[in-house]
Amino acid sequence: MGCPKEYSTKGGMGAALLSDPDKIEKILSTLVKGTSRPVTCKIRILPSLEDTLNLVKRIERTGIAAIAVHGRKREERPQHPVSCETIKAIAETLSIPVIANGGSHDHIQDYLDIEDFRQATAASSVMVARAAMWNPSIFLKEGLRPLEEVMQKYIRYAVQYDNHYTNTKHCLCQMLREQLESPQGKLLHAAQSSREICEAFGLGAFYEETTRELDSRRAEFLARTPEEAEEPAEDTSGVIKMAVKFDRRAYSPQITPKTCLLEWCRREKLAQPVYETVQRPLDRLFCSVVTVAEQKYQSTLWDKSKKLAEQAAAIVCLRSQGLPEGRLSEESLSLHKRKREAPDQDPGGPRAQEPAVPGELCKKPLVTLGSGKESPLEGW
């Protein structure tokens, strides 16, 4: 109940709930009674201390395990001072843990400041948001690392684990902040791929080396037998299953797993894929099974729409067959490779006469580098 943004409040969500204590009590009581897991909530402070204390006491009676308090009113923004006094009054009033929030910049600029903010608010712990986005090394007891070092390490993780470039770009913009108008900031702002982000930070060679290694691992993965790969799994009903979801950001609007699968079926002179989709009444989520050449394929993960569920089923079929699925990152790599090879191709050769097939733009499943054992803070 802390978000003050219009997209939340106009729907009665976020900080808008603070004006409806009855609904707050009903929501929290229902959650506490409906699960054995600890239930927590987050609020902003109200215009008066008395109203704030009355609300948090009512919230505590619902049985929640802890409460986070952003020490600003609904209409206030980061440029307004956070009220440590109000958070402290709440902490002294309640018996459950209070988590202090809102201290970035004014109070929290390095690791030691986190404890100072906790003491100033008498809270049990501290929630850090903006300061952690600006420089994640704020959690190092040894102190902040140089921003350039942090960004370089973050970019390396993003490439190794195939993070979508738009998310990588957003996080880096949060770190650069006032440096966005610098030459490097302008290059970042213009970047439209992970490759271009790496080039903006002098990591072009790292990107090339890492993507080559990823390609090699993908090739090894595709060369395995189904028993070695452990995926896909075929259950007793004869349906091949994988736990996959369709992330529309990773694909072109014109080149999706469904279009890749359809084109492949046409080339192989197979019947058109048939999708059977069901909706689960409890949560209204969808699951789809696609039949290709009398074999059924299904994702074990349910989706919020029929279209997404069908795309996930198509991905299962394509990956189990080692076929391209149309990911943007793979499209960029394939086109880049074609440009390099273009001078050696015969313009009048057979390939030049073949129509472009969307599915041929990518032929690699998702593979990431890294053992999974290394901490993001390790080595700093």
UniProtKB/TrEMBL annotation:
Region of interest (Disordered), residue spans: 331-380
Organism superkingdom: Eukaryota
One GO cellular component, as annotated: cytoplasm
Boundaries of every DRBM domain copy: 257-322
CDD domains associated with the record: DSRM_DUS2L, DUS_like_FMN
Pfam hit, one: Dus
Entries under InterPro entries matching the protein: Aldolase_TIM (IPR013785), dsRBD_dom (IPR014720), DUS-like_FMN-bd (IPR035587), DUS2_DSRM (IPR044463), tRNA-DUS-like (IPR052582)
Molecular function terms, GO-annotated: tRNA binding; tRNA dihydrouridine synthase activity
Lineage: Eukaryota, Metazoa, Chordata, Craniata, Vertebrata
Name of the protein described by the UniProt record: Dihydrouridine synthase 2
SMART domains for the chain: DSRM
